[in-house]
Amino acid sequence: MGNVGPSPDQMQAFSQGGDDGAPIVMINLLRYCEEAAYPQGFDASPCSGREAYQRYGALAAQRVASVGGRVVWMGQVQASVIAPDDEIWDDAILVEYPSRKAFLEMVAQPEYQAAAIHRTAALADSRLIA
């Protein structure tokens, strides 16, 4: 499995990176599982990774908006011009938040955390770059 969620060290470094109150754009690179990999016992109908991510996205968009953020752009990756040969992405998403603090507030929301199970089930690999 690839990198689907941040490590505790990565989240700590990001949260301690300082918040100057300036807007921040998060670059999301996504590679979907062929079939979503929900945990045993989780009540979700079988679906593709892309479909599971759409479940997550519908809920996450509400949480992004709740902290004043917005999706700037989302689309299918057409080609990687500069990247290792084995680094292949399905979609890219740019999400703007009013500040680093706003992003951290969003990911701490119980509603966001409940939605994140769909993201984890959906992805074979990902990158989240601030």
Verbal overview:
By secondary structure, the protein is of the alpha+beta class. The chain contains 4 helices and 4 strands. A 4-stranded antiparallel sheet has the order 2-3-1-4. Helix 2 runs antiparallel to helix 4 (110-122). The longest helix has 18 residues, at 49-66. The protein is globular and about 40 Å long. The model has no long low-confidence stretch (mean pLDDT 94).
Entry keywords:
globular, 130 residues, 4 helices, alpha+beta, 23% strand
What is the overall silhouette?
Answer: globular
Rg on CA atoms, Å: 15 Å
Helix content: 25-40%
Mean pLDDT: 94
**β-sheet strand percentage:** 15-25%
Summed up:
This protein has helices at 8-15, 49-66, 100-108, 110-122, and strands at residues 24-32, 70-76, 91-97, 123-129. It is of the alpha+beta class and 130 residues long. It has a four-stranded antiparallel sheet.
Topology, pairings included?
Layout: H1 8-15, E1 24-32, H2 49-66, E2 70-76, E3 91-97, H3 100-108, H4 110-122, E4 123-129
Antiparallel strand pairs: 1-3, 1-4, 2-3
